[in-house]
Amino acid sequence: MADKPHSCEICGFCFAWKSNLLSHMKTHTGEKPHSCEVCGSPFARKSQLLYHMRTHTGDKPHSCEVCGSAFAQKSNLLSHMKTHTEEKPHSCELCGFSFAQKSSLLRHRKIHTGDRPHSCQVCGHSFVQKSTLLDHITTHTGEKPHSCDVCGSSFARNSNLLSHMKTHTGEKPHSCELCGSSFARKSTLWDHIKTHTGEKPHYCELCGSSFARKSNLLSHMKKHTKEKPHSCEVCGSSFAWKSALLYHKKTHTGDRPHICEICGYSFAQKSDLLRHMKTHTGDKPHSCEVCGFSFAWKSHLLSHLTTHTSGRN
């Protein structure tokens, strides 16, 4: 090509400038001369190093005009925009599941391959991404040097402490332009906006479940790790989630504040009351796509589906 006279002898890719060809050749030789002074990660190109440095500085200059989400790279912003257009051009050839972002597809594929190269040296648990491993390691170290002077809560990062302090001051400077809800943390606002867009960027590397919030993913991971840090002071029973512990405590106190207005039956949790109400209304919103049979609860539908799949084995 006249406008790209410099060709790679290995793969045939063409470039307008020789400097770009020389930089490209490093992808074949494996040479990575540019190292990060913070974490030591090596890169073939200086531009890659500059992009990487934003993971340390937190610089995210590319913002989404629809929801306000910010990104370090323009390519990530362009990929994110597909979550608003609902465009999902990247499909898994194994199961047909589609994704808006190619990176999400690559991450999803590891569910099929089982590739988890990043292992925890403490417990042996392995992860697809190194960042997930680093988050996991804090569950072992438990280091939280930043403490709240008001309630004593401690945090691993000072930024988390500063965000936490707003729960005491009542400050909620970040508002949702779609529904008007306000939040103390900008990150919480971004998570909230995903309830409008339907975006679920946080994937479980073990089972493929996706979540709008990273906190929900971390909570979900306890199903796999069997971690139960919340213990009942009365009977010693342990729970993965604090909410489950609070619910359990009502078995000791007998507190059942949620009462059915039709039959007077009372429940410890509002969710139990709402589920009970279906026995009066006859509502069966969960339908089987195979035979059309409907169920009041999703758990019953999932159990029913096994009657179809078992016959195929």
Beta-strand share of residues: 5-15%
Which structural class matches the secondary elements? Answer: alpha+beta
Estimated radius of gyration = 25 Å
Specify the number of helices: 12
Remind me, CATH topology of the largest domain? Double Stranded RNA Binding Domain
CATH class of the largest domain: Alpha Beta
The fourth-level CATH homologous superfamily of the largest domain is: Classic Zinc Finger
Mean pLDDT: 78
Task: Quote the distance from N terminus to C terminus.
Answer: 56 Å
- Stretches with pLDDT under 50, minimum 5 residues: none
Number of domains: 4
Strand order of the largest sheet: 1-2
How much helical structure, as a percent, in the residues?
A: 40-55%
Oligomer: single chain
- Tell me how many strands there are: 22
Silhouette: globular
Largest sheet: 2 strands, antiparallel
Q: What is the CATH architecture assignment of the largest domain?
A: 2-Layer Sandwich
